[in-house]
Each structure stands twice: as structure tokens, then as C-alpha cells.
Design brief:
The protein is built from 13 helices and 14 strands. By secondary structure, the protein is of the alpha/beta class.
């Protein structure tokens, strides 16, 4: 079939700050033709990065597909409907059936302008889409019924439909974010699921060179930013936060036979996560050698550094039977020992006079051994990850504009973080478009290809 590519356009519904649009441009070298989103702040970021796109700042239901396309054929329509009423992160709260039903907009576009290819992204739980009870909760007995009706509606319109779950780390983004994808096409061509380009560094596929190793959290950290001491803050950290830091130090530094240590810096590091509804004694963190965990709409990631110095037997005679205030006047290493003893002990909040051997199997508390050399933790620093670190973690290119809108107005950090948490990792969209619409694709783009990383 000979395609008139000059008349086919690409539409990004629920465009947000531009994750899917950016991935599509990574593949095609061209901005999407139409972007729709109800949020002015999201459209402002999208305009800053995709100025050639025709923007609609209104509800997707208020946009008439026929009027929007102006007689042009639609080659690809992308849909990323709000996922919070499907996500397990939603918790046991009543859902909004209007938001929960947003995916039906894809059927509206299929009826009105019949896009040649439809792609839809959502959380894994999207397959459980079903009716609600009178109280507004998902009806467990009817789980998946609405989803099946949705699929059958597209099939009745002449679309072949397939769906699958993919992980962003497998396609060049340094995040493990896992998402549901649906592809529907009506042109008779096969649906193609992209082959992973990256994998577990310990796997045979990576070790034999067939796949590249997953990109890691360490790649996106701006190491030029310091990590202030947790003991010198004007406002002390919350009790639960301190406990999580101590638990993370236990797991990722003290007990890790190969902790992540910064080159040329006497500091070991890991990422901690903040979720107030979880058990503070649970270790919510990760090594910097892994892809970063799923990024939410509120900043939950903190970089923790344990500053270390070579361990000498003559310098470790710190008393632990004194009040905490007295210990702080001795030296920082003593304070660190007291802190770790309090929060990392088998009995949280125990007296400092309790013996160390009940706390750790190491020969001395807070001891880190690197290649046979002993180091003592001397101080602990922490800071939150910044937006310019979170966007690369999601797979956005380095030159993506996140701190100002299309008029040059500064974009608040809270808005920057909200946009990245809601975004589609661009490598997802790039890989899917390259696999299913190769006739659109180009090697040239102002955004660096994630697949090539």
C-alpha cells in the first residue's frame, strides 16, 4: 500500500509535559502535529519544547477530532489517559468514574477519523477496568469487564488489538517504570513489539554483547551538588526519615559487600524514598547501580551519602554511654555512631549503653570495608533529587526545557516534578514508533535517541 505521508499526521492526546511527544520526535525527527491537554501548566511546558505543534488546552472530550485534523489523515493517535484511578498507589479510596472512563476517548477518535495506528499507555492495573459499586469502589466480581468491552469496541471498528507490559529500563531509560501498552491498527500491517535494547548486566545477553546493560541511577545524579549533614539542619529531619536513613545505611553501605563509592570522593551513597504511609522500619531505598524506581508526581527520592575515612584502631574509642548532647560535643564520628545505634538497632530506640555486639556482626559499629581496607563512617549527608536529575532518570533528553514555559516564565519545581511523575518515559514511545511505523522514522532528531544509549 502506497502511503501519502504528507497528509498523515500524529496526534498526542493527554500530552502532559511532552514525554510521549518527545519519544515520537526521537523516532521521527518531527514534532507531533496536535497535542491536547486540559492543564495550562502542562501545555506551557509542551509548547516550550514543541513549538511547531498545534496545541489544544482543553478537555479531550471538548476537542472535535474531525475539526482538529482538518481533513488530514491520522497516521498515529497516542493516548495516555489519567491512570490514578487504576493505579495500586491510589489505595482504598472511591474513584471518579469520569476520570476512570477517559480511555473511551480513543474509541471516539477511532469512530470519527479512524487513525491508522492507535497506541495507549497506562498502569498495569488498566486491565482490571470494570464497573463500580454504589459506594464508588471497583466491583471485584466484575473486574476487567469494561476493559474487555473497550477492546471489543476497537475490534468492531476494524482494528487488530494487542497489549503488553513493558519496562522503561529495557529500552534505554534509567528507570524501572513498568507500564501497560495497547496497540491497535487497522491498516492490515502486523503489530510489532520492540525488542529490548538493554538488560540486566548479569544476564547472558548483556555479557555476550547482545544487549547493553541497564542504565543506572548513578548516571543521572548531579554530583556537583553537595549533600548537607543531617546533623546540622536548622529543622531536624522527622523521626521516620532518620530511621529510614539508618536502615538504608545498614543495607546499602554497612552490610553491602560492594557499596557504591564515589570515585575520588570519600563517600558511599544510595537513594532513599519517602512514603509516609509505609512502615518506617522498612528499607525503602536502592543502590545507585540499579535503574531508578518509578518516579511519582511528588518528589520522593533523597540522595544519602555516608562520608567515610580510613579506620584506625587508636581513634575509635568513642563512649556510647553518655547522653546524646554530650556525644555531639566530642566529634562527628561519635554522633554518627550514636545515631546509627539508635535507629539501626534490633530494638529501635534502645539505650545507648547497650552492647554493640547485639547490633551488628561487624567488629565495630559503622565500619565499611572496601577492598580489604577498613573505613569508618564520619558523617551522613542527604538532599532531595532535583528536577534536572529526575527528568534524565525518566529518559528525557538533556536539552529538554523543564524550568520555564514557552514565554520564558520560570516553572516552579513542584510543577516540574509533577510533570515528570505523570510523564511517559520517552524511550517507550520512541521504541514503539520505530517498531510499528518505520516509514515515519529518521536518524536525525534534535533529541538524542534513547535506543542508541
Amino acid at each position: 500500500m502506497q502511503l501519502d505521508l504528507f497528509r498523515e499526521i500524529i496526534v498526542d492526546n493527554f500530552a502532559g509535559g511532552g514525554g510521549a511527544s518527545t519519544g515520537i520526535e526521537m523516532a521521527t525527527g518531527l514534532s507531533v502535529d496536535i497535542a491536547i491537554n486540559h492543564d495550562p501548566a502542562a501545555i506551557a511546558m509542551h509548547k516550550a519544547n514543541h513549538p511547531d505543534t498545534e496545541h489544544y488546552c482543553e478537555s479531550v472530550w471538548d476537542v472535535d477530532p474531525v475539526q482538529a485534523v482538518k481533513g488530514r489523515k491520522v497516521g498515529l493517535a497516542w493516548f495516555s489517559p489519567d491512570c490514578k484511578h487504576f493505579s495500586k498507589a491510589k489505595g482504598r479510596k472511591p474513584v471518579n468514574k469520569n476520570i476512570r472512563g477517559l480511555a473511551w476517548i480513543a474509541v471516539k477518535w477511532a469512530i470519527a477519523v479512524k487513525p491508522r495506528v492507535i497506541m495507549l499507555e497506562n498502569v498495569e492495573e488498566f486491565k482490571t477496568w470494570g464497573p463500580l459499586t454504589e459506594e464508588g469502589y471497583p466491583d471485584e466480581a466484575k473486574k476487567g469487564r469494561t476493559f474487555n468491552s473497550f477492546v471489543k469496541s476497537l475490534e468492531a471498528l476494524g482494528y487488530k488489538v494487542e497489549f503488553k507490559e513493558l519496562r522503561a529500563c529495557d529500552y534505554g531509560a534509567p528507570t524501572i517504570r513498568k507500564r501497560f501498552f495497547m496497540i491497535a491498527r487497522c491498516d492490515g500491517n502486523p503489530i510489532v513489539w520492540p525488542e529490548p535494547t538493554h538488560g540486566d548486566p548479569h544476564s547472558l545477553a548483556v555479557q555476550t554483547g547482545r544487549l547493553k546493560p541497564w542504565r543506572t541511577a548513578s548516571e543521572i545524579i548531579d554530583w556537583s551538588i553537595g549533600t548537607p549533614s543531617i546533623f546540622e539542619r536548622k529543622k531536624p529531619l522527622a523521626e521516620n526519615t532518620m530511621r529510614r536513613i539508618a536502615r538504608g545505611i545498614q543495607k546499602f553501605i554497612i552490610e553491602d559487600p560492594n557499596p557504591y563509592v564515589l570515585p575520588d570522593k570519600e563517600a558511599a551513597a544510595f537513594l532513599t524514598q519517602y512514603y509516609t504511609e509505609t512502615n518506617p522500619d522498612e528499607v525503602r531505598g536502592q543502590s545507585l547501580r540499579e535503574p531508578i524506581y518509578t518516579i511519582p508526581t511528588a518528589n520522593r527520592f533523597g540522595l544519602v551519602t555516608a562520608f567515610i575515612a580510613q579506620h584506625y584502631k587508636t581513634s575509635t574509642g568513642n563512649r556510647v554511654d553518655q547522653p546524646l548532647g554530650a556525644i555531639t560535643t566530642v566529634n562527628k564520628a561519635s554522633l554518627v555512631s550514636a545515631f546509627l545505634l539508635k535507629y539501626y538497632g534490633s530494638d529501635v530506640g534502645q539505650r545507648l549503653s547497650e552492647p554493640l555486639h547485639t547490633i551488628t556482626t561487624r567488629d565495630r559499629f559503622g565500619l565499611v570495608t572496601l577492598q580489604g581496607q577498613d573505613y569508618r563512617i564520619m558523617d551522613i549527608g542527604m538532599r532531595m533529587l532535583q528536577p534536572h536529575e529526575l527528568y534524565p532518570a525518566q529518559g528525557f533528553p538533556e536539552n529538554y526545557i523543564i524550568d520555564r514555559d514557552n514565554t520564558g516564565k520560570p516553572y516552579p519545581k513542584t510543577e516540574q516534578v509533577a510533570r515528570v511523575g505523570n510523564s511517559v518515559p520517552p524511550p517507550f514511545a520512541e521504541s514503539l514508533v520505530r517498531a510499528n511505523l518505520p516509514e515515519y522514522c529518521s536518524k536525525e532528531s534534535r533529541y538524542k535517541s534513547a535506543v542508541a544509549n
